[in-house]
Amino acid sequence: MTSIVRNQWYVAAYGREVGREVFGRTICGESILFWRREDGSATAMSDRCVHRRFPLSEKPSHLVGDTVVCGYHGFTYDADGTCVAVPGQTRVPRTARLKSYPVVEQDSFVWVFIGDDDRSDTVPIPRAPWLDQEGYTTVSGMEPLAARASLLVDNLMDLSHETYLHGGYIGTPEVANTPITTEVDEDAQVVYVSRHMDDADCPPFYAKSTGIEGRIVRWQDIEFHPPCLYLLHSRVAPVGTLPNEDGTDPGGFHVEVVYAITPETEHSTHDFWAVARDFALEDEGVSDFLRESNRTVVLQDVVALDALERVLAGEPDGYQELSINIDTGGLAARRIMAAQAAAGAEQVPESPAALAR
Ligand code: FES
Ligand SMILES: [Fe+2]
Fold first, then answer.
1. Which of 126, 134, 170, 173 is within CB 3.0–4.6 Å of 229 for a Cys-Cys bond?
2. From the CA of 171, which ligand is nearest?
């Protein structure tokens, strides 16, 4: 059975990736074409021409006004996927239509709904407002992962690995040594994992970006919206500096680390990452440093998770794991995602062949 959760919104791209050029990306095993209409709105449809399945994202396929023209024999589709012209005849076959996908642009992301379109209104899209908000500066990117999405979820839910895998960047001994608290909001389907370090080494990622010298208060508050969006609310401040009782926090530096986790296939993932900060807003040097550092950290995870995927592919079914306290958040996320996958799978219409039986 598939581990991919269907009937869900996923981040397909950054808004900046979609423009007046055809652009293809595989999401949850579906090849999807993205482009913008002349009014600037984004649209998504199957990336396979109904004629002979030529990819519409492949040159010489191209846009003409608000239509896309297949680069092989010229079938032409409008922005909702309806075929409006075919070569050599005036009659367009009634069934000539590409599947189109619901699309929403929000928080700098292009979200696409994978599943039964008529359910898209009933599934909320989690928010990451800092990525597109006054008072924050954001750096971001996407790295392809040759590993299943659940491995990235495991990785992000347990940050004790920072100490070992990301030593010298974001890891210090206190991360692995400080216990976590985990909470699950079953109704909202959110998993929270918190680790508050009151007296910790300041890793280079924060020392160089904030200018703090010496030891720090370091809070990591994770908020995961399975299966697709992970938020890490990170607060650092000089040791002893806490927020005011009214919640204001002039002495703290806040970094919102966002990951959108989008399955490409069962065994590969689009790893979208973004780092938004509320300090040094105009400082290009800080932006360059955080972009480079975070990308390096993400690539350290990519190397580890790709290795893990290769290992797991060769393991017999039912291989054993051994979980400890640090895994509590990851296990909660797995449980919710398994339930979501089962519920989503029930909604997937059977294939015509199966229905005919
Ligand atoms: S494959 Fe697209 S027009 Fe023939
Ligand atoms: Fe990591």
1. 126
2. 2
Distance CA 156, CA 46 (A): 31
Token readout for 180 is 């976590």
- Given this model, what pLDDT does residue 161 score? 95
Give residue 227 CA to ligand 1 midpoint distance, Å. 35
Q: What is the pTM of this model?
A: 0.94
- 11 and 20 Cβ atoms separated by less than 8 Å: no
Tell me the HSE value of 102 on the side-chain side, using a 13 A CA sphere.
18
Cα separation, 85 vs 92, whole angstroms? 6
Mean pLDDT within 109-122: 96
Q: In terms of DSSP bridges, do strands 109-114 and 8-14 run parallel, antiparallel, or are they unpaired?
A: antiparallel
* d(CA 87, ligand 1 centre) in Å: 10
CA distances from 283 to 133, 137, 268, 288 (A): 17, 9, 35, 9
Least distant ligand from the CA of 296? 2
Cα–Cα distance for residue pair 155/146, rounded to 1 Å: 14
345 DSSP assignment: H
How many whole angstroms separate alpha carbon 278 and alpha carbon 229? Answer: 21
List residues near ligand 1 (CB under 6 A). 49, 51-52, 54, 70, 72-75
Interval between CA 29 and ligand 2 midpoint (Å): 25
- CA 167–ligand 2 middle distance (angstroms): 10
pLDDT category of residue 3 using cuts at 50, 70 and 90: confident
Residue 312 class from Cβ within 10 Å (0-12 exposed, 13-18 middle, 19+ buried)? middle
- Separation of CA 54 from chain center: 28
